[in-house]
């Protein structure tokens, strides 16, 4: 438990949008930022468990901060942070695809959105326990390396067919526009 408390304290000492907002609230209210952060996390958790629109809130949590961090990573000179966030987006995309097919069933389970939000937060956690990094290296990467040549072949074939169809449609559209209209 002390490790969690130390990580929490370390997070509150970092400079980012959330901690700056907590510092401003602390200055205005006189309430310690630890209590403010704990209260906000508790309200967020209760809303995810029982609130209307938990799906939207969960999707915002899974998208807004990672998008912001991704932009910062793109603008930084380091390549490592780019890899971290690209890995997150690969996992997020595959999770979204899996969720698309199972959401109708899963959304009926109690606390589904709280679990989904916990999973997305697990995928964002910085450091060695980053869930996206673990999932990518243990599941996604081995599958990709095993099947990427077959997938590349299918994509190349579909791309060629799509190009042929687009050329045919364009040719037909041009022919219909350039043909003189017959008067009745």
TrEMBL record:
Stated family: Belongs to the DP1 family.
Keyword S-adenosyl-L-methionine on entry: no
Keywords of this entry: Cytoplasmic vesicle, Endoplasmic reticulum, Membrane, Receptor, Transmembrane, Transmembrane helix
Main localization (coarse): membrane
Coiled coil: none
Membrane-crossing segments per the record: 43-65, 85-106
Compartments, record wording: Cytoplasmic vesicle, Clathrin-coated vesicle membrane; Endoplasmic reticulum membrane; Membrane
Lineage of origin: Eukaryota, Metazoa, Chordata, Craniata, Vertebrata
Membrane topology: Multi-pass membrane protein
Stated name of the protein: Receptor expression-enhancing protein
Species, as recorded: Acinonyx jubatus (Cheetah)
